[in-house]
Specification:
1 helix; about 10% helix; mainly beta; Porin
Length: about 170
């Protein structure tokens, strides 16, 4: 893992955890709403285990971030780390979810760890109570850019994901 990837990873974690506080002030409400879930497809490709925090909510808008991990038993693709910043539109349990993600992939080639990354978008549906309970989501997660593309050509590759987990 090179220095830039380590700094990016630490910055994203710091950002996510710095906003996971409860705060109320008139029209604004900061919620301490965390989720742990399994995603099939989506930002990591095959699957990922994820933690996310919804750190800000005002009127019908909410914002959050998530990170995950997938370890794939293969001789060439040992680990995948998806990150995402997302927004939710909705007031009750039903939300339109949108976001932008970055996935760091580490390939094992000739006993050497080679990093790669992709950038993804998200547009989908999310069911989640504002307090603890089951959550699930389904979304269109197109790959916007594959950083391993030799020619630097922008590509849009359609993809999708489905998740189920627990919000607390």
């Amino acid at each position: 893992m090179n220095k830039t990837n380590i700094i990016t990873f630490i910055t994203i974690l710091n950002f996510l955890f710095s906003f996971s506080k409860t705060y109320s002030n008139n029209n604004e409400f900061w919620i301490n709403n965390h989720s742990i879930y399994l995603e099939i497809g989506g930002n990591a490709g095959l699957y990922s285990l994820n933690y996310d925090v919804n750190y800000y909510s005002k009127n019908i808008n909410s914002f959050g971030g998530r990170f995950g991990l997938a370890v794939i038993p293969s001789s060439t693709l040992p680990s995948v780390f998806p990150f995402e910043i997302y927004g939710l539109l909705g007031k009750t349990y039903h939300f339109i979810e949108y976001g932008l993600g970055y996935t760091q992939i580490f390939y094992l080639v000739d006993q050497s760890l080679n990093p790669s990354s992709i950038i993804l978008a998200r547009l989908g549906y999310r069911y989640q109570k504002r307090q603890k309970g089951i959550m699930y989501r389904i979304g269109f997660t197109p790959i916007l850019k594959n950083a391993t593309d030799k020619f630097g050509v922008f590509r849009l590759t359609p993809f999708a994901g489905i998740s189920i987990g627990w919000a607390f």
